[in-house]
Amino acid sequence: MRLRLEVNGERREVDGVWEGESLLYVLRERLGLPGSKNACEQGECGSCSVYMDGILVCSCLVLAGQAEGREVVTVEGIAGGDELHPVQEAFVEAGAVQCGFCTPGFVVATHDLLRREPEPTDAEIREALAGNLCRCTGYEKILDAVRLAAQRTG
Amino acid sequence: MEFLQPLDRKEALEAKAAHPEAVPIFGGTDVMVELNFARTRPRAMLDLTRIPEIREWGEEDGRLLRVGAGVTYAQIIAELGNKLPGLAMASRTVGSPQIRNRGTVGGNLGTASPAGDGLPPLYASDAEVEIDSTEGVRRVPVSEFILGPKRSVLKENELISAFYLPEAEGPQQYSKIGPRNAMVIAVCSFGLALHPEREKVGTCIGSAGPTPIRAGDAEDFIEGVLEEGGLWESRVAIDEAALRRFGEMVAAAARPIDDVRGTGEYRRHSVGVLAKRTLMWAWDEYREATDAA
Ligand SMILES: Cc1cc2nc3c(=O)[nH]c(=O)nc-3n(C[C@H](O)[C@H](O)[C@H](O)COP(=O)(O)OP(=O)(O)OC[C@H]3O[C@@H](n4cnc5c(N)ncnc54)[C@H](O)[C@@H]3O)c2cc1C
Ligand code: FES
Ligand code: FES
Predict the structure, then answer these.
(1) In this predicted complex, what is the ipTM?
(2) With 90 as the cut, is the pLDDT of residue B62 above it?
(3) Given this structure, which CATH class describes domain B49-166?
């Protein structure tokens, strides 16, 4: 089937989409946007987190056709051009990136938290990131990164 | 595979009648896992997210609320925390922000898992499920809607359109046991609602039986204690022996099995503890409500 949607501010049209595939598959395999990661395909890890119509979702749990006509923002669209978003900068500086596989999901989820709550408490940070898994950092540096980003943007 | 995307209720019911094999999808937080792991290859998918009315909630007559099947957990938390505190509490325990942004009570009913966190608050307040088809609308008490693990009375040509739940008339609680504070399927859970105007106590055990289970004997027992002691009026504390007995009776009502998440014995014990605690918390809140007044 044909799918029309807006991705990172650009209107895209994709042909040959299989009715049973996920938005994550469309983004990675059909639109060449590999920023959103595919790790679990069951909503557990958050590495595929994107915005759909401004709402944070796991793109692996969105059926492609459900995204028809919707506005999707992926990690590639969080910052303008070649710049890094302050959230991304904070992750780099705080050492919150090791293998980096979880990072795109954490960046989008942190972005979502800080626009809702510019000065989050530690409890709020933990709650907001509860749907994102990291196998490398042990989370402490990720918490540091979120606090740093909040300081700079809040 | 066919992809059906009706734009309103009528189209949706006609699509379901014409394609009874089509699998409805709303938040996809259950369905997509099945699809991604190729556990199912349905002939057709029926996307319900374009139907405006299914995402809405509103007041019916008096205190009854009609909540559309597509109202998400995030919406319940943000918009219905005061009117449906038990369901909002349960909603906060579901998955993660990403899951709560998409998942719905309609989908929880559709899946009909005994571990569904949205279900005990519905049982504890005598909710009804509204079922819609081209043949007409019917309403079924939630306890009759769910028949067994992942089985409900929903027929092939039917969709869940909404559920009805009275606005809370007293304190409500929901408590859940799991290995961490987020992203867990309940090992067991317990929902409780005080209905002071009717002098009733509603309960429901989650994830410790083939369906959510109301602990009817425990309800009768504690209602008797409250009535005989005149506690609804005096708002005196419930004595320890009665609280303990209530917990024991709830534990006795559970029908748990051993599985990867916990043993039956652990579930029976812990659901009794949850019952005692949630009653204590709810009753304390009921007592404080007049202290303030
Ligand atoms: C990572 C993760 C964590 C989770 N954590 C929890 C948790 O803590 N507690 C919990 O209870 N659940 C949890 N779940 C399960 C799931 O999120 C819930 O069951 C949710 O309520 C499903 O809602 P949905 O709208 O996403 O349903 P969908 O996946 O869209 O549908 C679920 C089922 O209901 C049917 N259906 C949906 N809408 C209708 C309708 N209107 N009429 C008829 N049938 C319909 C579908 O065909 C399907 O069978 C989790 C899932 C994931 C992936
Ligand atoms: S890939 Fe979507 S949550 Fe893991
Ligand atoms: S940095 Fe490797 S998974 Fe998080």
Answers:
(1) 0.98
(2) no
(3) alpha beta
